[in-house]
Structure formats: C-alpha cells, structure tokens
Amino acid sequence: MAQLSDDCFAFNGPLLPIGEAENLIAQRIAPVDGRETVGLRAALGRVLVGDIIAPVNVPPFDNSAVDGYAVRGDDLAFDGEKRLCIVDRVTAGHAAQHNVGAGEAIRIFTGAPMPAGADTVFMQEDCRLDGDCVVVPAGLRRGANRRLAGEDMRAGTIALPAGRRLAAQHIALAAALGLTKLDVRRRVRVALFSTGDEIVEPGSALPRAALYDSNRYLLAGLIGRFDAALTDLGILSDDPKVLTRALAAAAADHDLVLTSGGVSAGEADHVRSAVESIGRLVFWRLAVKPGRPVAMGVIPGADGHGAAFIGLPGNPVAAFVTFVRVVRPLLLRLSGALPEPLIAMPARAAFSYKKRQGRREYVRAVLRRAADGIVEAHKFEQDGAGVLTSLTETDGLVELDEDVTHIEPGATVGFLSYASLIG
Ligand code: AMP
Ligand code: MG
Hints:
Layout: H1 18-28, E1 35-39, E2 52-53, E3 63-64, E4 68-71, E5 81-90, E6 104-108, E7 120-123, E8 128-130, E9 133-137, E10 146-147, E11 158-160, H2 168-176, E12 181-185, E13 189-195, E14 199-200, E15 211-212, H3 215-224, E16 229-236, H4 240-252, E17 256-260, H5 271-278, E18 280-285, E19 288-289, E20 293-300, E21 306-312, H6 316-334, E22 345-349, E23 353-354, E24 360-369, E25 375-379, H7 389-392, E26 396-400, E27 406-407, E28 412-417, H8 418-421
Parallel strand pairs: 5-6, 13-16, 13-17, 14-15, 17-21, 19-24, 22-25
Antiparallel strand pairs: 1-12, 2-11, 3-10, 4-6, 4-7, 5-9, 8-9, 18-20, 20-21, 22-28, 23-27, 24-25, 24-26, 26-28
Helix pairs in contact: 1-6, 3-6, 4-5
The chain binds adenosine monophosphate (AMP) and magnesium ion.
Adenosine monophosphate (AMP) binds at residues 194, 196, 198-199, 211, 213-216, 260-262, 264, 266, 313-316, 386.
C-alpha cells in the first residue's frame, strides 16, 4: 500500500475546515500502483490509467443526418422552389452508385454516406415529389444536415483522458473507436468496520440497549459506487485491544481502512487512541455539521508504506455527510481518478435557519416546485444526526458555507442531490 507517507499532513489544529481537508487529500494522496487490461464491459466504473488516443475518425465518413435528398451546394442559389431530378437512392450501410450532378438529387437516409458531389441534404419533410423529381424550397445553407467525418472525434486526438472514471457513455465512445480493451488502474482495497458495544448485525437477536448496524450497509453501498474492492470486516467492540489489533491487521493489505463510531471524545471512544498507538492521526475534528468527529490518519502497512485511515462518526447522517466530503475525494484520489468537484445547484430556500459561523452545515431537504415555477428546498423537520429517515425521506443536502450565519425563506441556497453525491 503506497499512498501515504507518515509526514504527509501538516495540520494540527483542533477543527479543520472541510476545504483544507480536501486540499490535504488532493495534494498528499497518491493513486495506488497497479494496473490491468480489461474488456469494454468490465471497464465500466474503472479508472483509465493513460490517455486514449482516437485511432479512427468518428464518424468515419461524411454522412446524412436526416432522411431526405442529397444535393450540390452550388444548386442552392435560387428563389421560390427548385426542381431536381432524382438519380439514385442510398440507404445506411450502402454507397450510392451515381454522383450528384448539376440539377440532380439523390434520395438519402440517415447515416448513409454522402454521394460524391453532394454536400447538403434537404429534409424530406421540406420537400415534395413530382414524378421522378423532387421540389425543394429556397433558403437552405450549404452543408446543412450533413455530418462530417471526424466531427465527433478526430483520429489522433485524446478521446478519453487518463483518470476518467468510465461511465456508460465513455465505454460507448471507446466502442465507437473500435477499441475492445482498456488499461485501468487496479481497484482500491477498502476495509470496512463498524464499532460499538451496542451495535449488532441485522438478523441476530436484539438485546436490550442494542442497535442494528446500519452504517456498514450505508458505507458499503457508497463505496460500491466507486468500484472499490471492499472487505467487510464486521463489528468491533469498544475495546482498545480489539480495535488496535483489527486496525493493524486491516492496514496490512488494504489501501484504506474505514470505520464508523468511536471517534468522538467519550470515555468509550477508543478508535483514535488505537490509531495513534499503531500509526499517526492527522486530524480528528472537522468544522462540519453534522459530522464533527471524523478522524483521518495513517496506519503503517506491511511494506513500510501507510494505509489511509478514516474514522467516521457513528451517527448515520454524520457518517453520510463526512463520507461525501472526506471519503469520496480520498477514494477518487486513491483510484487515480480526476477530481470530480461537487457543484451545488441553486434552489430557493423555503425555510429559515440559524448556524454558527466558521462551520459548514448540511440541511436535509425535499425539493418541490413552487407556484411561480422555481424549485424550492424544504427542510426536513427532524434534523438530528442520528435520524436515518431524514436521509430516506429527502432529495439531498442544502450546503451552507462557513461564512453564512442565517438563512431566510426566499434566499438562494446551494443544493446537492443524493444522485450527484453518490454517483
Ligand atoms: P459514536 O460515534 O460511537 O459515539 O456513536 C454515535 C451514535 O451513533 C450512537 O448513538 C451510536 O449508537 C450510533 N451508531 C454508531 N455506530 C452505528 C452503526 N454502525 N449503525 C447505526 N448507528 C450507529
Ligand atoms: Mg460508539
């Protein structure tokens, strides 16, 4: 595991702003080593190691964008209507037998190659047949309804850059270029634990004072979106020895060790001290609500390099918010992906809210379109960091920056949809 050296973070202050945590991750975390070559379908979700240079033009030849009549641009200068003789017919996948001469047209269909001599296509809806001829209207410009070879992608240019996380559309472009295999980085290995004496596995009996584990399911689902190789290592008790042993073992063969719970300042919170006893803590509190206790550190791995460690808060909503803001950029960096900034979309606040300056806050909200057509964000009433239904019953998070102190109804706020956050 070769991504974190022991001295990679400088920050020692008590409450780290999110932006600084993100900068540290961007500057100091290196992508994992290792690559493999995979088929197109298997490449979905993986990260490209190198640039892909287009070996061919897309489209490969000039062709018609519509069903209609291919003509010469030189025949377009007229007023009223013009009658052109149809000399051939060409469908997609075939070539015309004739050239288009002066005063002539060739019946053509979408995707068919442009006949020699023709550079413009009239849409069939704009034309009228008259025996063996077609009557076309004036006013079409030269080149209309024709797609040029290479206008989508020119041979020799970068089709997909190194670091691109391959979604369906990127795989489609690789296929359009005729490629069958892609070089991708190896998957990031993530070890996942829940912690807490009160946490039990769903399906087992629920003793008094116990709680079913939801965080591991939340976090496993989120990690899955980054196509990491996940090892689910279950639930650890609030026991320093158990924690230390398990975290050290996980660091040996993972790039990232992720826990939830046990990182705040309570007497039963031993995760931080466990990390400090075997590695180094970089920060353990973020200026964010919900989610303040979130620890990041390095645990030495087997080969002298460090595995990254992130301890998320135990409250599920806090775990979600800090995953998005800390684990997401870290996973992107480790996987060699280009940064994918989260851009909040504007919405109109339908609520008032007071907050402390200097802290980023996230308000769970439902979107509704108001009578005047503007999209409004409605705050979910129960806003406790442990209220899981505040995530299941809403559409996303209103993000309130550090310098904001209050929001009144009607203010424009930034909204991050869950779809954008967990993609
Ligand atoms: P902690 O950060 O350990 O103090 O936990 C904060 C709150 O989150 C406590 O109420 C815990 O019971 C709860 N919690 C911790 N881990 C989990 C988990 N895996 N699933 C659901 N709730 C949890
Ligand atoms: Mg706990």
